[in-house]
TrEMBL record:
Belongs to the MIP/aquaporin (TC 1.A.8) family. TIP (TC 1.A.8.10) subfamily. SUPFAM superfamilies: Aquaporin-like (SSF81338). GO terms for cellular component: vacuolar membrane. One of its GO terms (molecular function) is water channel activity. Pfam families: MIP. It is found in: Vacuole membrane. NCBIfam families: MIP. Signal peptide: none annotated. Keywords: Membrane, Repeat, Transmembrane, Transmembrane helix, Transport, Vacuole. This is Probable aquaporin TIP3-2. It comes from Olea europaea subsp. europaea. InterPro entries: Aquaporin-like, Aquaporin_transptr, MIP, MIP_CS. The chain crosses the membrane at residues 50-72, 102-123, 143-162, 174-196, 216-235. Channel protein in tonoplast. These proteins may allow the diffusion of amino acids and/or peptides from the vacuolar compartment to the cytoplasm.
Length: 256
């Protein structure tokens, strides 16, 4: 049966495990955004291309996949390795994380993305992060659908490899599977919506770089896609759980 929903226990706000998990989400998101956005700035500095070429897209997809693999792997045993407000939202919709823990994660993820963008701005001598915007010739609603579908695939993979209590040994390759689907999605959606799949990844560069065009798409799309994945996997794929997977134990990272 799917887990129940909980706001979170009072002691969770000050529990050392909660603080460590929140810090892990902050640092992992910082690492991911710095490398991902940094790869775009590096290509822009080296080649000054006016349009995104196939080779550049491949490099950007690879940089994001490698960075996400490292970010998820390094935080999975502490926080569950969300590194993404949409992933946290999908887990919340499925009852896999308390509301209080989700709020902590969202704050940490957004701050991590903002700090990463600021560090990039300082390290590159004032280059503004580019963030995301809809490509020329692509409609806003087309881009929204793209972000929904891409994020659905990402969060569905997270559920299958990292959250499902019956995942068994499959959990050991979760960071790799998550990185693979993210990189593949960048190759598909990059030329259209930019393939954010992560509201924090979009927000940090937008704030520091002052680029807010079409920004609402990069919140609404990923959150809708994540919610769909959480509902479908939680209520359609997960059939039974062992007793220790209950909503009364929201602090263990393996529950996420």
């Amino acid at each position: 049966m799917p887990r129940g929903y909980t706001f979170g226990r009072a002691e969770e706000a000050t529990h050392p495990d909660s603080a460590r998990a929140t810090l892990a989400e902050f640092l992992s998101t910082l690492v991911f955004v710095f490398a991902g956005e940094g790869s775009i700035l590096a290509l822009d500095k080296m080649y000054r291309e006016t349009a995104l070429g196939a080779s550049s897209l491949l490099v950007i997809a690879l940089a994001h996949a490698l960075a996400l693999f490292a970010a998820v792997a390094s935080s999975m045993n502490v926080s569950g390795g969300h590194v993404n407000p949409a992933v946290t939202f999908g887990a919340l919709v499925g009852g896999r994380v308390s509301v209080l823990r989700a709020i902590f994660y969202w704050i940490a993820q957004i701050l991590g993305a903002v700090v990463a963008s600021l560090l990039l701005w300082l390290a590159t001598n004032g280059l503004k992060p580019q963030g995301y915007s809809v490509a020329a010739g692509v409609g806003e609603w087309n881009a929204l659908v793209m972000e929904i579908v891409l994020t659905f695939g990402l969060v569905y993979t997270v559920y299958a490899t990292a959250i499902d209590p019956k995942r068994g040994s499959l959990g050991t390759i979760a960071p790799l599977a998550i990185a693979f689907i993210f990189g593949a999605n960048v190759l598909v959606g990059g030329p259209f919506s930019g393939a954010s799949m992560n509201p924090a990844r979009a927000f940090g560069p937008a704030l520091v770089g002052g680029r807010w065009r079409d920004h609402w798409i990069y919140w609404l799309g990923p959150l809708l896609g994540a919610a769909l994945a959480g509902v479908i996997y939680e209520f359609g794929m997960i059939q039974a759980e062992t007793p220790h997977h209950t909503h009364h134990q929201p602090l263990a990272p393996e529950d996420y």
